[in-house]
User: Which sequence fits this backbone?
């Protein structure tokens, strides 16, 4: 193997996904040199687009939450502002929250943004739900304020301050979504409708922490959701551009193969598969601890504690997406909503269980992008994407020779369910089609089993203890921090950007302490 | 509001306090079995999409007056990836100091690939194909990209009945599609119209006759020769109508641009939707310029900077290859995006109708060197093909 040694960098970021890109900008803004290594030829990881015929498809983003308007920015818009990319991107507002359909004919509800509008609509669907819904949002507000406080002190919260200012946050903090909603005496039907966002976090509501769900819902409903006009590829290229402006380097088609350590088990370099070594003391890994501790980190430096802590965790959903370019407009086809959640049942525990197997999974989170941005495809056409997840490694049973057919079977089911539940006949209008299976996600992003949601934020590993253990977790291997969907904040666009922001700033802190 | 789950609020508080100790204990209690080195889904992804493959030429066989068949085996593995019939590979080699590469459609079937064999049918048409057809010999090693491309059947989009129209070496992907049907991996019914000047220019006659027994309908059309068992003339709508209902099929066209122009004009009166006709992409060649200027092209590749000559009539990719720079590329038609590179400075133009970039690529200054020509000195940042 040819050994080519290049100049040292203060920080090497492995992976140009959402977390890695944000982290790199933070490192550069802190005044340190940074190289981003990306195995693929594009930035963004899942945040990208691809072309088929006259369509440019969004690869994964349904909506960016906690974004808000320019005047009332949410946390993510503020972050983009701080990173220096807000103005590089053209933004469009998503018109409504979601359209929930369950195929057992229990629900067909369209929910709006805005707390009052949301509560009013819920009262229409479920008379008598107003009081519990109002209390729910009050509680969510407190959750959000507590988290803002926690972030402002970098996770080093003062417990008496917490008790005094956020008593409900603490009292609700150890319970699941369903436990809290029951305690609020929310009517079952209202719970079902409210819980529709659960698939965005990928954990059923018996095991999902209320704090996690509540903080997400409040961000969606109060600050509404936005999209970049040119698909998420626009965000990724804006971040790439910003990194170059700040003097950082990005190498594409450059998979990091090994993290090399010295005699004292400190990081000394990152090695590419062609043998190139990049000297560095700090790595931000925008990939899973399973890959880092299982394959990338030199074996002599892998400790039993790393192995146990990694093995203890549970993979979240494996992704599957169908993309359709249709040769009729959304209006002609009768597709009215931007964002559909179609479930077999509103019971998330039952539903989660059905999602373990490819054959029993009929869930879809479906977007018709034209209903948020009519100009996203040529006049007289529209674009849709249908996403689901598998809650076990069932897809791993697919053989090579059955692969293309297996993709078609799931895609066919998605089309059938959508047509049946909405009455919109789309099949004959299919002009372009693409299918991304867990295999596809494994191929492009390298995640184990094609997981797109990182580790499950359920039970003991839910968001709150993760946040409280931020410092402790980083001690597992000083010099290494994680960003992206496998990091502390878990998956989803906004979370990934926040994780990169945190890890980038914390690495700057590490570097400053070293000088001292 | 005052939230309370248990009878006394302090009980809720206590539970909260246990979150961290609980998680700490759970992390420490994870099994100490070694972390997996690989995962089934990722292994499948790697088998289907190995990236670059090392291959060896095992057989060379003349096919027709202007076509040669090359058979390859893999050196780095035993099996080629299972692919979708109709796809291409890019073959890459060093010839006389230049790196050269071209996409060629696969003629063999996906099952053959699994059995370790991949076959290309190559028409002598340019520098590299001339080399492959006349100088390459069994035992030669080359680099090949994984099978790629969207020119293939889509079960949920296309009609059950399909019509293949082949001209010249355009027979290769359609032969693969017919083979895949015969082997049961595709469930369409296929009619193939294969046009050539005369029988001397027809390839794969024996193979097509064999496939005809297995359900393929083959109509061979000669423009310059009249012969029993062959249609005479061009592949017109009138001729095709003798065999199929043109309004209830999906077309797959592969051949020269002139053939595409002719067939599309023939199909115009039927007002078929766009989705009814698929055309395979063609390589982007040199521009026809009278006195092309030569510019300086500065290429950043990771931490290295190269300066090479770039002729006004040649793509940036061709300029880099001539200088021996290993720039990534696959389709050479502007569509696959594998050569995606950052423009830094200078003027350029893009081949007509071949700007396959994403919208944001245009906004932030990214280009596809395989279809981009220089109009001044130019500076770009290109990934290294690995």
Assistant:
């Amino acid at each position: 193997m040819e050994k080519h040694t290049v100049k040292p960098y203060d920080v090497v970021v492995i992976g140009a996904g959402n977390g890695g890109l944000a982290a790199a900008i933070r490192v550069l803004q802190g005044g340190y040199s940074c190289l981003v290594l990306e195995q693929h030829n594009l930035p963004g990881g899942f945040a990208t687009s691809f072309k088929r015929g006259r369509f440019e498809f969004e690869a994964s983003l349904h909506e960016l939450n906690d974004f808000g308007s320019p005047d009332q920015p949410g946390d993510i818009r503020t972050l983009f502002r701080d990173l220096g990319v807000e103005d590089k991107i053209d933004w469009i507002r998503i018109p409504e929250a979601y359209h929930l359909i369950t195929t057992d004919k229990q629900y067909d509800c369209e929910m709006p943004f805005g707390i009052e509008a949301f509560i009013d609509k819920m009262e229409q669907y479920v008379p008598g739900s107003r009081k519990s819904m109002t209390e729910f949002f009050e509680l969510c507000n407190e959750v959000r304020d507590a988290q803002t406080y926690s972030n402002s002190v970098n996770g080093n919260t003062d417990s008496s301050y917490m008790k005094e200012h956020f008593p409900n946050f603490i009292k609700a903090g150890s319970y699941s979504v369903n436990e809290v909603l029951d305690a609020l005496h929310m009517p079952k039907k209202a719970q079902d409708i409210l819980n529709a966002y659960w698939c965005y976090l990928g954990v059923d509501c018996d095991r999902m922490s209320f704090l996690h769900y509540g903080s997400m819902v409040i961000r969606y409903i109060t600050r509404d959701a936005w999209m970049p006009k040119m698909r998420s590829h626009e965000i990724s290229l804006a971040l790439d551009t910003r990194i170059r402006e700040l003097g950082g380097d990005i190498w594409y088609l450059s998979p990091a193969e090994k993290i090399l350590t010295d005699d004292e088990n400190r990081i000394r370099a990152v090695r590419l598969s062609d043998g190139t070594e990049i000297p560095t003391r700090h790595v931000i890994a925008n990939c899973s601890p399973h890959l880092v501790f299982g394959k990338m980190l030199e074996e002599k430096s892998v400790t039993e504690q790393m192995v146990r802590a990694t093995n203890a965790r549970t993979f979240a959903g494996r992704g599957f997406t169908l993309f359709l370019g249709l040769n009729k407009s959304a209006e002609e086809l009768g597709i009215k909503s931007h964002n559909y959640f179609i479930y077999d049942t509103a019971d998330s525990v039952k539903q989660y269980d059905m999602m373990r197997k490819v054959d029993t999974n009929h869930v879809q989170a479906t977007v018709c992008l034209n209903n948020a941005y009519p100009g996203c495809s040529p006049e007289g056409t529209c674009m849709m994407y249908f996403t689901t997840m598998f809650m076990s490694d069932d897809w791993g049973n697919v053989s090579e020779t059955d692969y293309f057919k297996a993709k078609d079977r799931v895609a066919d089911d998605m089309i059938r369910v959508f047509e049946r539940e909405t009455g919109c006949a789309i099949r004959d209008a299919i002009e372009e089609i693409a299918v991304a299976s867990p295999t596809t996600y494994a191929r492009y992003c390298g995640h184990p089993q094609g997981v797109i949601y990182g580790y499950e934020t359920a039970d003991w590993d839910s968001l709150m203890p993760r946040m409280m253990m931020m410092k402790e977790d980083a001690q597992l291997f000083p010099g290494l921090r994680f960003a992206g969907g496998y990091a502390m904040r878990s998956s989803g666009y906004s979370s990934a950007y926040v994780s990169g922001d945190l890890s980038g700033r914390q690495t700057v802190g590490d570097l400053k302490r070293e000088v001292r | 509001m005052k939230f309370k789950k248990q009878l006394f609020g302090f009980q809720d508080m206590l539970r909260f306090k246990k979150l961290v100790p609980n998680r700490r204990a759970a992390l420490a209690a994870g099994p100490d079995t070694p972390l997996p080195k690989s995962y089934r889904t990722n292994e499948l992804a790697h088998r289907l999409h190995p990236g670059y493959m090392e291959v060896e030429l095992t057989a060379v066989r003349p096919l027709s007056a202007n076509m040669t068949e090359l058979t390859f085996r893999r050196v780095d593995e035993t099996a080629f990836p299972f692919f979708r019939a109709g796809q291409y590979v890019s073959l890459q080699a060093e010839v006389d100091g230049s790196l050269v590469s071209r996409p060629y459609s696969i003629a063999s079937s996906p099952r053959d690939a699994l059995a370790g064999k991949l076959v290309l049918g190559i028409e002598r048409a340019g520098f590299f194909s001339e080399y492959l057809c006349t100088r390459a010999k069994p035992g030669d090693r080359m680099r090949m990209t994984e099978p790629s491309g969207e020119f293939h059947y889509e079960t949920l989009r296309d009609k059950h009945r399909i019509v293949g129209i082949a001209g010249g070496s355009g027979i290769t992907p359609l032969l693969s599609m017919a083979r895949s049907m015969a082997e049961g991996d595709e469930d369409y019914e296929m009619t193939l119209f294969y046009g050539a000047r005369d029988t001397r220019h027809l390839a794969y006659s024996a193979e097509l006759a064999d496939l005809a027994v297995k359900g393929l309908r083959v109509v061979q059309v000669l423009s310059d020769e009249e012969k029993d068992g062959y249609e005479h003339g061009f592949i017109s709508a009138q001729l095709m109508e003798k065999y199929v209902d043109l309004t209830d099929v999906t077309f797959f066209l592969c051949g020269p641009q002139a053939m595409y122009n002719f067939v599309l004009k023939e199909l115009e009166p039927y007002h078929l939707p766009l989705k009814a006709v698929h055309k395979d992409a063609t390589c982007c060649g040199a521009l026809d310029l009278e006195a092309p200027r030569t510019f300086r092209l500065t290429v950043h590749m990771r931490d290295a900077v190269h300066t090479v000559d770039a002729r006004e009539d040649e793509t940036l990719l061709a300029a880099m290859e001539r200088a021996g720079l290993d720039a990534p590329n696959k389709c050479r038609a502007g569509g696959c995006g594998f050569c995606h590179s950052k423009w830094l400075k200078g003027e350029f133009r893009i081949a007509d109708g071949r700007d396959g970039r994403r919208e944001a690529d245009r906004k932030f200054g990214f280009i596809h060197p395989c279809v981009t020509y220089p109009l001044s000195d130019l500076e770009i940042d290109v990934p290294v093909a690995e």
Observations:
- Chain A has a mean pLDDT of 95.
- The radius of gyration of chain A is 22 Å.
